[in-house]
Design a protein that fits this description.
single chain, nucleotide-binding, ABC_transporter-like_CS, about 220 residues, alpha/beta, globular, binds adenosine-5'-diphosphate, four-stranded antiparallel sheet, ATP binding, ABC_transporter-like_ATP-bd, transport
């Protein structure tokens, strides 16, 4: 059964830029897929369709049994956890704890249940010791891990990450790879880091100028590029 289905997806920005020109693919439960391609190929635009931030100019996006083509689905952010390229877009509370608690709090969690959920998410990204810190005091790698924790605390079925390794030093990058390997559900991410792609995914979708240029085994597609 497919957890993601994108069919003939087109996206035209208000200024007329056609960022996606009829993109189609399907992703199975538990698959790990990298979306690669040059700058401007349409990767970020595509990711923003997967949780309803964008609505299609034409075509369809399905997540599980739900059709997103008519816009944002209530609850979609619980199903699809989106990690932006810049963690500063995601961290806006006074403390790390508050940021990670924000989503579950909105879902109605409180008391011990909320505390356990936040502690668990921070634990999984190796950031338990940062709970009381102000997000803006963190290093780039720490911010990235906390941004991922804010999404993990919602227990998403699908984790979507835009350039997860960008700006990380080699040590932070290794930590990130480790934590992504431990996330057993569906993962979809963009990356220019081809070694990371090979380590984390079996499958690569190559975009070029808003179209799918190749879709198949990572090793094969990266060898041909
Ligand atoms: P990538 O993530 O692969 O670098 P993007 O999805 O960011 O590609 O961009 C795809 C195309 O859409 C590019 O030509 C880019 O300039 C254009 N684009 C992206 N965002 C906007 C926007 N808000 N308004 C107009 N054009 C945009
Ligand atoms: P729609 O759902 O109709 O696609 P969005 O909510 O995605 O509209 O976008 C609203 C406005 O924000 C648009 O003018 C769009 O160009 C702009 N926008 C959306 N995503 C980006 C982005 N990644 N970078 C810059 N501008 C963006």
């Amino acid at each position: 059964h497919h957890i993601v289905e994108v069919k003939n997806l087109r996206h035209v920005y208000p200024d007329g830029t056609e960022a996606l020109k009829g993109v189609s693919f399907r992703i199975h439960h538990g698959e790990s897929v990298a979306i690669i391609g040059a700058n401007g190929a349409g990767k970020s635009t595509l990711l923003l369709h997967l949780n309803g931030y964008h609505s299609p100019t034409a075509g369809e996006v399905r997540i599980g049994d739900f059709l997103l083509s008519k816009g944002t689905l209530p609850g979609i952010r619980r199903t699809v956890g989106m990690v932006f390229q810049d963690p500063d877009d995601q961290l806006f509370m006074p403390t790390v704890y508050d940021d990670v608690a924000f989503g579950p709090l909105n879902l109605g969690l409180n008391g011990n249940e909320l505390e356990r959920c936040v502690a668990d998410a921070l634990e999984r990204v190796g950031a338990a010791h940062l709970a009381a810190k102000a997000p803006y005091h963190l290093s780039g790698g720490e911010k990235k891990r906390v941004a991922i924790a804010t999404v993990l605390s919602m227990s998403p079925d699908i984790l979507v990450l835009d350039e997860p390794a960008s700006g990380l030093d080699p040590y932070a990058r290794r930590q990130l790879i480790g934590l992504l390997k431990e996330f057993r559900h569906t993962k979809i991410f963009t990356s220019h880091d081809l070694d990371l792609v090979l380590e984390l995914c079996q499958r690569v979708i190559l975009l070029k100028e808003g179209e799918v240029r190749a879709d198949g085994p990572a090793a094969e597609i990266l060898r041909d590029e």
